[in-house]
Amino acid sequence: MDFMAAMGPAGGGRNPVTPRLLRHFNIVSINNFSQAVLMRIFTSLMDDHLRRSGLAGTPPGVALKGAVEGSVDVLLFAQQELRPTPNKSHYLFNLRDLARVIQGLQMLGKTELGPDSKKAMRLWVHEVARVFSDRLTDEDDQRKLFVKLGTAAREKIRDDLAGALRPDAHGE
């Protein structure tokens, strides 16, 4: 009979596992991926999507490619700054969250995004809010996340977040 167990590090409401229990298991651990590795993985996935959907080289395609780098920045920020505590034990952000954002970005093609990069930017903001912000219970934490989102938009996508989110920016 084999027993398998999985655990995360103590903290955020989780207690440490005693050495008496651990002696019955072989411990295997995996280090977190570096920013460069995350960029390589998810940029490759996005490049494939852009090529298949005909968005490669278009303004929305360039924005989506920048959104990958911005999403990696947001994930690393959330892991560092939005740490779990006993009253915020659900503040656990990992690779799965980044994958959800990228998967959401890949759901729209050339016809839905059109020729303008503003829709791609709004889609990225929506996906980050859906995956990260919806979990945040504190208004200060949400503010920090959206400040980081604006910084990532300026640095990685080279576009202004406020301009993309303005009602007149999408013709409605």
Supply database-style keywords:
172 residues, mainly alpha, Histone Acetyltransferase, Chain A, 8 helices, globular
Protein described:
There is one protein chain. With 172 residues, the chain is an all-alpha fold. It has a single domain, classed as Histone Acetyltransferase, Chain A (Up-down Bundle), CATH 1.20.920. 58% of the residues lie in helices and 0% in strands. It is built from eight helices and no strands. α3 packs across α7 and α4 (95-105) runs antiparallel to α6 (118-131). The longest helix has 23 residues, at 59-81. It starts with 18 loop residues before the first helix and ends in a 7-residue tail after the last helix.
In short:
The chain is mainly α. It has helices at 19-22, 35-53, 59-81, 95-105, 110-113, 118-131, 139-157, 161-165.
Question: Helix and strand layout, with pairings?
Answer:
Blueprint (H helix, E strand, L loop, with lengths): L18 H4 L12 H19 L5 H23 L13 H11 L4 H4 L4 H14 L7 H19 L3 H5 L7
Helix pairs in contact: 2-3, 3-4, 3-6, 3-7, 4-6
